[in-house]
Amino acid sequence: MKNIQNVLTFVFFLTTCLSFAQGIVTGTIIDDEFSEPMAFSNVLVKGTSVGVSSDFDGKYQLELEEGTYTLVFSFVGYTTKEVTGVVIKSGETIVLDILLETNSLDTVLITTSTKRNTESSVLNLQKKSVVVMDGLSAQAIKSSGASNVASAVKSVPGVSIQGGKYVFVRGLGDRYTKSILNGIDIPGLDPDRNTIQMDLFPTNILENVIVLKSASAEYPADFTGGIINIVTKDFPTKAEYTLSLGMGYNPDMHFNNNYLTSTGSDTDIFGFDDGTRDLPIHRYQQIPGTFEDRLLLTTLTDRFSKELRAKQQSSGMNFDFGFTLGNQYDIGDDKLGYLASFSYKNETVFYKNREDGAFVKNFSDSSNNELNSVFDSKGAEGTNNVILNGMLGLTYKTDLSKYKVNLLHIQNGESSAGFYEQIISQDGVGGGLEPLTKNAITYTERSVTNLLISGKHRLSNKENPFNLEWKIAPTFSKVMDKDHRITPLQQADNGDSFISPSASTFPIQLWRNLVEESWSGKVDLDKNIELFGRSAKLKFGASYTYKFRDFSIDDYTFNITGDDAFIASGDVDQLLNSNNIWNPTTDNGSYLVFGDQFNANDAYEGEQSIAATYFSAEFNLSEKFKTVFGIRTEYFNSYYTGQNNSTVFDREPILDEFDFFPSANLIYAINDDINLRASYGRTTARPSFKEASVAQIFDPITSRLFIGNISLSPTYINNFDLRFERYGNNGQMFAISGFYKDFTDPIEQSFFLQAPTQITVDNLGNAKVYGVEFELRQRLGFISEGLNNLKVNANVSLIKSELSMSDGEFESRSLAARDGETIDRVRDLQGQAPYLINVGLDYNNSDIGLQTGLFYNIQGSTLEVVGVGLVPDVYTQSFNSLNFTINKSFGESKNSSIDLKVTNILGSERLSEYESYKAANQTFSLRDPGTEISLGYSFKF
Fold first, then answer.
1. Most buried among 176, 563, 844, 857, using CB within 10 Å?
2. Helix, strand and coil percent figures for the chain, each rounded to 5
3. pLDDT in tens, 602-647
4. pTM
């Protein structure tokens, strides 16, 4: 028995040693002509009989003992490629992606090194692509040291990150940029945005990130600046587990004893409310008046939240943690793999000097250029933001098929508390100024759940079969504003506080509920054929998306009858103190305002559907001239159910549009390193549910009212691109692009006539945007060999936008013109930046595991809200963003790393201002994000 134990121990020890003495080389073999995976390609270790074939996705994997190898990649009709110097180390995985070129000769052999092949593979994909695109492979993301997609994608030319979360392409705002996950629509935490927060996705679950800048028939038509496609991995090549921890410190915000907060629920730390903030009475409960002398009014009033004042306490630091785990298993000849990730972020923001304002031109004296204040708000606001993100993916792969299930859930809870001193104009044009104080306590709970079920099939094992891909993806979203408590009080001349609904509003508690579901499905087919004696590819498919939204508001206001001395000091917590609530006996105190039950005007339902088909053909007119022509159709329907006083909409058709979206992409290879591209595509931008409605959504902090416009039309854009690009060695390139975009009926955010606190959206004319874009990626090794790891990344976009005003807008501006002012019929397009500059100095030495960089970004002053009549335009001012990052990996296998980041080094403020003829700029909004220093640690095992 003892001998058997010894033998088993020896076998276990030997097996363990052998397994740890092995490493893995893995990657994808790609057709250089069509940039698509090549199934059943051959991979052989030169000088041996050891080899494998690539699978259905063109992926291969070899387990080899420590040493240096030459690998041979081949496929019938393609050039054979030898890669030398493949160094295998114990426990390490090398990713080696290979591009094979078609060739009619019997035998052609190309030899390259491991490093040179890795660096050229990513650029070759971009170089051979027929659409204007930029991409980040998993290797490029890893080498950048970025921890999430937002940090990684900022190095893509023409891309800027707003608020560290949202991606804008070519200076165009959210309306014209679209993000998709694994090739299919997914709404973000804000369903009215076209893009999802990019900081939600850790980089170690990504296969790649693709940014498309020109239209292609297989992609949705509702974008103009670009589409960001986030592609997650199927599963890792071996068991892999990663743990990450991080913290951030902002000296202006953290450990500040003046931070404002309120009492929350026990589950706020997990991003959701446990029911503490639920509506305390039924929405259809009738509210009696004080004149009815009913004790019911006392009981109902006493149920509402009594904490109305923002409290001071010390603020904590930002912190986050997360983990990923994944593995694959052999099931006969098939593979089953999983990938799971979880991340948690807890962020604290404190604006000690938040400012908001509203201004108008002098309505009685056109010789007076200075603006009159109608609303001024200054105060402090503390916000705690919690985001949980969990994802689980399962993939089953056979020789001819792949099945994938991916579940994503994002949970977000945001609580804020603020105190503001405000001045409001009673006549709306700058007269009758009254001082107010306002306490605000808010909580918003958001969640998104997305399920993706997909399949990919090679329909035969012949050389050029049909390939079929299908996807089904339901998504469920919620945004719940829970128990927002806004308590304004007017100040009397003697300093006493009192409720004054005429000067501000009644104290209010409100609940807003938005529930949305989206069902998406698509089917794609493609086949390689021969056309005009050359290789060609046909693609065709169809998709359908259905969205439904249910939105409602419950709000309740409060007043005081009789003696109001209990709030004279301004302590708003006394307002709903049980001792101060009205009762029939005293007929004195605070009470719910009569008739405040649910109003049908405060709710709507929306439905949208998009049915799409497409066809495209990719073919070569000559050896150097490649083309793709495509046509996409989309049938868009939008229905609205709601009420505007006496006008009732019962599933009223709002939009019914059937459109063709043609696209053409041409690429001419001047030589192996230089391309000339041209493209055309027709795209659209459609109104959101909120915009195409009669909904009125009030922000009680800024006193701004958003009013929907049910008569909106979609925007249509004709896009033209011309691009010259030159590729060098070691990931270097230079490109210059010109683009022109013609907008019909752009949707813009504007003020209502003579109403500086009321904002709506409208089609305000036609516009055109044209510009030039420069891109440079240059290593500094030409100066000195020692500087070869130092690279300059720079891209500059210079953009001119021109919108021809509608007659109504032009007339309103002319009537409100100042003396000596000439009104031009043409103005800037709302949301379009005039220039965008991204410059980065990036050092990357993979041998010692060090990556560091200094990145600068600025976007020019951009029209944010269109002025009408006496209300001037609002411009978002330039924000000088300078960030530093350094990442150092440790250990023989570099399994652990430390990441240090400093953001907003220059301490720039986020400022939007009113701009008017010969007048001093006035503040619309001002926030100071300060400078943050963050430290992160990750460990892979």
1. 176
2. 10, 55, 35
3. 899 999 999 999 999 998 888 889 899 999 999 999 999 999 888 8
4. 0.87
